[in-house]
Each structure stands twice: as C-alpha cells, then as structure tokens.
Amino acid sequence: VTVGKTLTLTASATGNPAPAYQWQVSTDGGATWTDIENAAASSCTIDPVTADMNGWHYRYSATNHAGSQTSNAATITVRPAWFDTPSAIVVDQAGNIYVTDAAAHVIRSITNDGRVDVFTGQLSTPGTATGAKTSTRLNTPSGLSIAPNKTLRFTDRTQRVRIANESGATDVFVGSTNNTGLVDGYRTSARFNNPSAIVTDSKGTSYVADSGNHAIRRISVDSALGGNVVTIAGAGAAGAVDATTGTLASFDSPSGLVLDEIAQLLYVADTGNHVIRVIDLANSNYPVTLHAGQFGVTGASDGEGLTEALFNSPHGLALDGGDLYVADTDNSTIRHIQANGRVSTVAGSAGSHGFADGPGADATFNHPVAVAVDASGNLYVLDTGNAALRKIAPDGTVSSPALTDYWIPEPPPASSTNGGGATTVWFALAPAVLIAIRMRKQ
Length: 442
Fold this sequence. Notes:
Shape: globular
Radius of gyration: 24 Å
Mean pLDDT: 91
Largest sheet: 5 strands, antiparallel
Structural class: mainly beta
Number of helices: 0
C-alpha cells in the first residue's frame, strides 16, 4: 500500500452461530500482539497508512460459543508516495516518462533510471498562470501528449489545452481560461468542457476527448494562427450512436484516445458507454463505429470484441503495433484487443482491487486509468488507486519500478524481512470456524 492511502483488511469466517471478530496488530514481527481498539467488525480500516507501518502484521480472531481461532497474519509493505492522483502518461523515444499528477497540480518527469522530478507546475498550488517553470500554475492536469517538437501538450481544469517546452515553461495552445462551451475556432476563441485525453500525431495535429461535451475535437496547427479547433465527432449531448458522419454520432464522457501508427484511425475509450469506439480519420466525414464492448453493459468478459467482450469504465489506451491495450478502470484490469478484435485480460483480476506484483493473472491493481508503451514493448500503467507506477513486461510479468527523488536519491523503505506472525493454533470447534484473510486497498 502507498503511504497516505487507505488500507482495508477484510475477515471471512463461517460458523453457527456466526462468529464475532477482533483485529490485532503486531509491530515487532509477530512477537507480541495488541487488540486494535474499535476493530471488532468483519473489516478493519487503516486511514491513513504511515511510513512507520512498513512491516507491521495484522490478524484477527473469530469467536463463537464453541471457541476461537486466529487467522494467519497479513504483512503490509508501505511504499513511498511519488504521486498523488496520477492521470495520464507518455513515454518519449529516450525512455523518459511524463505523468500528469492531477491532485498535486503538476506534471512529473521520470528518467529512464527511475529519478522523479516535478517537470512543471507547483506542488499543491493550483492556478492558471503560464510562463516560466517557476511561475507556472496548473489546475488538475489530465490528458498528456508529446508533440513532434518535443513539447508537451496537456489539458487541465482551466478548460484549455496548454503546452510546455523542454524547460517546463508553459503557454496556452487553445481554449479560454475557465470558460466552458462547445465552440470551434482559433486559439482562445475555442471553448471546451472538461477536456481530458489528448493525442498528437507526427505532423502536430492533436485530438482531444472533450469529456463534458461528449465530443472529439481536432486541433490543427497553422503557423500564422496557431491552433484551430474543429469538432469531428459527437454532438454535445451524451448518447450511444454510431454514424457515418462523426458529428451525428454520440459518446458518453469519452476519456481515452490513441492513434494508429499512420494516424488514420483514432481509438476512443467511451467511458460512460463502457465500450471502445474507432473514428476513421482517412474519411473526411469521420465515421464512428463500435470496436469492442456493448453499449451500456458493464462486465469483464473476454472473447470476440463485438459479441462477447465487456468492459467497465475503460479509460486509458495504448497501441503497440496492432495490439490495443485498455486500462479497464472499474475492473482493475489491463485488457488486450488484438487486431482481429478478440479481447483478453493480460493483467489483474476483475473486481479484485489491490496492490500485488507477479505474473499477470496473479497481479492486482486499484482502478488503473492510463497506459503507455515504450520502445521495448514494456507497458506502463498508472495505478491511480494505489498512486503508483506499474510496469508489465512483454512476458506479462507485473512489477513496480523502483523510483528515487531526482535531487536527493533515497531508496524507498525496504520491505520487512519479518516472518508471518505467530504460529496459528487451530482449536477443535463444533461446528468448525473457517477463516481466511484478504486485502483491499482504496
């Protein structure tokens, strides 16, 4: 669990009559145990988790008139908080990573050797100011893309698309400060409503998921006039309609975008409809079609994309050749859509929200929202509920990269080497009490 987050431990037991619970904690590797005050329910919530809890053991006893049993221990590993609420991620050609950290109001950079720094914005200081890195203020940055000239383009709650150069200085690209609407036009005459995802092609044309307008906007670059905004799909109202003309189609809070390698297909995570859509950019009418999932139906089923597969609030998208990856947020899984449309789950377990590394099926996430692929085929995941960066190797193994502060390298606290607590003593009960322990991180 990440420091500062909430940890909920859940007990499971059966018996007749139903057993009562008491949670206990050990701070010395299981040598001694102390009852936790006001923790006599089936779940125990620790909020917030602090750094000094690293290695602490938790267990519970289950008791009915026949006697008591004590569960095995759960040991918590507390990771440092490098992020607050990470929301979008991109990887440049050198392997450097950039992350919008929404609640911290900054964009962070991560070098390919794991050093973390604030790229632009001021920590915990929202605002609208542009200019040099030291004076820039961001407000809940969300979408993020890399433009051909190595600048970043990003969206935030100021209802603008903004740019940041290599030194972290920012300027306005399009949109008007804190003015909402669905208005096409040049630069500051354009209006957005909660723009989220943004993606930019090799020629500098950007596409924005304008979530509050339920629309997809295109920003073309004119050397004289800057960015020109045009709505290519969606009509400003939520819906679930495909159409041969993009502006006759409808979306529901789209929040993820990715372009194919030749920028002819734009894939859209249509979050409120729980589906993946595709827009044909090679057709001047921008037709919109369903790519995977079923409109308005939530689930976690794998299989054929249009007849069997289901999603639950998909957000971030990434492409690796013909392979499309989806951060299936409310399922806490990472999904894979093959070029033939077949959907599979590559990591995580649907409905199991947690923080565990390992082979894909054994790993757990907590509401991931964004994904990005590097040149080596590694898939990076923003595990937002855990405030963590995760990595899925080409063989499907999930890990949590070691990160350090950019200026003062200081490794995260080491995982506890303590054992699993006191040996469980199983008493003969009539009837027996069967117990297990599982963890859910929020």
